[in-house]
Amino acid sequence: MNIPIVYEDDWLLVLDKPSGLLTIPAPKKESRTLTGILNQDLEQRKLPYRLHPCHRLDRETSGLIIYAKGKSMQQKMMDLFKQKKINKNYIVFVSGRLSNKEGQIKSLIEGRNAVTNFRVVEDRNGFSVVEAVPLTGRTNQLRIHFKIMGHPVLGESKFAFRKDFKIKAKRLCLHAAFLEFIHPITNKKISLEAKLPDELLGFLRVH
Q1: The dihedral of CA 108, 109, 112, 116: what is its sign?
Q2: Which residues are within 8 A (CB) of 180 and not within 5 positions of it... i.e. 6 or more apart?
Q3: How far are the Cα atoms of 45, 86, 122, 197 from residue 77, in angstroms, in the given order?
Q4: Is 155 in contact with 173 (CB distance < 8 Å)?
Q5: Could you report the per-residue pLDDT of 88-104, keeping only the tens digit for each?
Q6: pTM score, whole prediction
């Protein structure tokens, strides 16, 4: 697969994941995952290491995802995530117009605190383009938080009914657009960006 590489060095690989691809196998044990595709490619090229995901993106979410070359580097990166030393920004299209143009969403997700900062980038006809910054890393956090606000993510089918949307989207309109962290080996600041994919840009042109 032609999956864009956004950054690579001796320790890390950062990719721009397309929508529709799992990071790792789900309970259904699907074999076609981003991790499986990457490591199969490494085997074919007879490279001596394995790639390990340092976090996850939902199947339907596109954008930046970090892989470590080896388990020890994976642990270093996961520690950075736990210490909240990795900044993540998402671009999300949500239903309707938000009354507050910026703010913070706080709620429990599966009994654990979850916090998301948000800022409206643009009001469109029937939906809003929002920059969202999750300060915690709960599963499906942004999707749940915007649903709780009454502004579910366009294209949502897990936490909202498609019939409830006035505007139909062919995919979940959620994209991991920006990552920033201090590299645990080189101590250099790494700032990475993934532009909106063609299908989301096309959606904006039509709507």
Answers
A1: negative
A2: 86, 87, 189, 190, 191, 192
A3: 25, 9, 33, 26
A4: yes
A5: 999 999 999 999 999 99
A6: 0.93
